[in-house]
Amino acid sequence: MNKPVIYTLSLLLTAFTALPGKAADSTPPNSVSETVADSSAYTVEKLHEGFKNPWGMAWLPDGRMLVTERSGEILVFKNNKFTGEKLAGVPKVFNKGQGGLLDIKLHPNYAKNQWIYISYSKPVEGGATTAIMRFKLKGNQIVEAKDIFAAKPYIPADFHFGSRIVFDKDNFLYFSSGERGTQPKVQELNNDHGKIHRIYDDGRVPQDNPFVGQKDANPTIWTYGHRNPQGMVYDAATNRIWAVEHGPKGGDELNLIEKGKNYGWPKTSHGINYNGTILTENKELPGIEKSVRIWVPSIAPCGMTIVTSNKYPDWKGNLLVGALAHKHIARVQLDGTKYVAEEKLAQDIGRVRCVAQGPDGYVYAVTEGPGLLIRLMPKNDTAKAAK
């Protein structure tokens, strides 16, 4: 009864060719595809079903896994099975539209300091905002909880909260904040929205942040000009941070995140407004970073990990990106910082909200519609892992 359900999926390798083009071209770089059948096969194990809107995953050293639900719950799993338990003391969240309880991440030194971090839509006067909280656990009870960041200004909109959290090798904390519909102000450095921020693990501001000491600039900002980044990962092997963000209608982006850089929104975009009108004529501008990968049509990227495990020798160093709209996991192959090719995994599995590599080295994902916890298994490991 508790054995995982296993689906064998043929993997389709989609090779994308980068086309040279001018800024005015209607076709974005890396958007033309050629589909070639791949003879290899992997399996997808369905470990749990019944989520409503899962968002983030984190594994504790004692073997428990925590999964956030956007409604404001943190579910406790053990051995990939829901224990029926939930954490107590979760903060009240703004559970409207795209808001709610979002990402979760353990401190890299969790074994010593016990800190856990969440991002959430915090209810505030006049609406909601993206906030970062840290806390410890006493059993299943949240203790010592404290907000260490809350984005300003407060906005009444119920969408584009961003949310992803990563730590780098020096334990600096990075997190994304969506633009909350404030398009003209995303380029302003006194506005926290549409940014990726960098802080110490207790919320203090590092003095080597790019805009520290600059007049009318918020010191936590690391990069700006983002629309709604909902996937981010730190690559320890290269000391790089990658992020994916939602474009408007078309123009989803994979970006290499670098100190102080401007990623263009809303001055540049490869997408259009949802009503079909032109958002901007500019696909590139001087002083604005070019995306490493652009998806047209949109896949709605959400959640991202990098494969470091020996379980997947052919995938090592690749990015895995959840695709909400196209309901698959995109395996993105890179050559350094250049896009090479892409493969669709777990096609039609559901709206993939989060992808993560677990402590056992296997790749896990949570989906909505249906609400699943899945694990990607190399073909030769399936029988062994299912026991």
TrEMBL record:
The keyword Ribosomal protein does not apply. Residues 51-373 form the Glucose/Sorbosone dehydrogenase domain. Pfam families: GSDH. Residues 1-23 form the signal peptide. Keywords: Signal. InterPro entries: 6-blade_b-propeller_TolB-like, Glc/Sorbosone_DH, Quinoprot_gluc/sorb_DH_b-prop. This is Glucose/Sorbosone dehydrogenase domain-containing protein.
